[in-house]
């Protein structure tokens, strides 16, 4: 958490952008469950790590902007780490960072347009909390005077995966803050080396500090179509459980554009605060290797991994035991349904693998074998001709929808906890080591009435086993 004596700005609103897909961290990060929801650098997820940096009496409750399909994951992870009171704005469709930030600014401005926002991605790492607090204090003071402030990270290497910021003249009255001379797109290696040699260029962290009034004023001036569309989507928003749903039709009308292109590179209010925060965008497996704890040979291992006679490797296993022998500077990542092996120097190009899988129409490109739902999750164990076996976990107090299927029957075997099952007109309590049969076409529902997670094995049999063979009659979570 930042040094709060440095911030001195009660009510700074953390705005956390949680809508990315993180394809460079495939096969762990995928569209269905991207990197911000994974514990990549500690026992907490990236979203939880990010929210924890701005937790305390000097900060307002966060605003999290997320995709609609991830809404329950966001809510559960925030609750699970003690972050209460968060406002979760749902994007009906991804439109990059500028529309997401505009939506958050409209929400803040509704309460106080002069409140300072601290805008950040949900999936970056910061090691030096004290330095962050000091930089945030400088940035917030400049933001109150109408500036849009970003943090420039002092570069340690000639990184080609980041954009750069060139420092201009000092900002009068704000020691440690400078006007921005220019933004530089991600450079090639030679250009990057030249940039870091002059001492005036910094990595672009993608974090911004500004008041809602300033951000909206510049949005209306420099990106009027974004401002107009998002305002319409915000004005016609509607509450949904703990979420705020932006109007889908209006939001789709917004251009798809980043905050850098829409505002930062055009505004005359841009300011940079140079800092050394131990920052990483955690954007590739090589970046994770950089910040991971390593052995004497420079190897980093996580999970069920064995490394022998190798140097400079990153090995992660979320599935089978993964053994590496005689390799140098290699990334090996194992999940239950996919394995990635790459040279560390090529880690920025993992997206090419994802694109190739998409062309082959492979589900592994975007979907994990484990599928999360508002009530828990399921994962396929075995699939054959006219049958499928799944493991289903239902959280305490949660329930599935009241539903039926046209093409399959189901057999449930409870292996942990207890299930309260509706089967047509019956309601039955199925305990551990007991089972129940649900014939094709019966109306059924399962809920967990207990205080521990309910785990069961589901055996499906029938002519069609797709997830779209479902008719919902009633659903706690508002799904159709």
TrEMBL record:
It comes from the Bacteria. One of its GO terms (biological process) is GDP-mannose biosynthetic process. Keywords: GTP-binding, Isomerase, Nucleotide-binding, Nucleotidyltransferase, Transferase. Residues 305-357 form the MannoseP isomerase/GMP-like beta-helix domain. Its EC number is 2.7.7.13. It catalyses: alpha-D-mannose 1-phosphate + GTP + H(+) = GDP-alpha-D-mannose + diphosphate. GO terms for molecular function: GTP binding; isomerase activity; mannose-1-phosphate guanylyltransferase (GTP) activity. Residues 14-296 form the Nucleotidyl transferase domain. InterPro entries: GMPP_N (IPR049577), Man1P_GuaTrfase/Man6P_Isoase (IPR006375), Man6P_isomerase-2_C (IPR001538), ManC/GMP-like_b-helix (IPR054566), Mannose-6P_isomerase_type2 (IPR051161), NTP_transferase_dom (IPR005835), Nucleotide-diphossugar_trans (IPR029044), RmlC-like_jellyroll (IPR014710). Residues 362-475 form the Mannose-6-phosphate isomerase type II C-terminal domain. Belongs to the mannose-6-phosphate isomerase type 2 family. This is mannose-1-phosphate guanylyltransferase. It comes from Acidiphilium cryptum (strain JF-5).
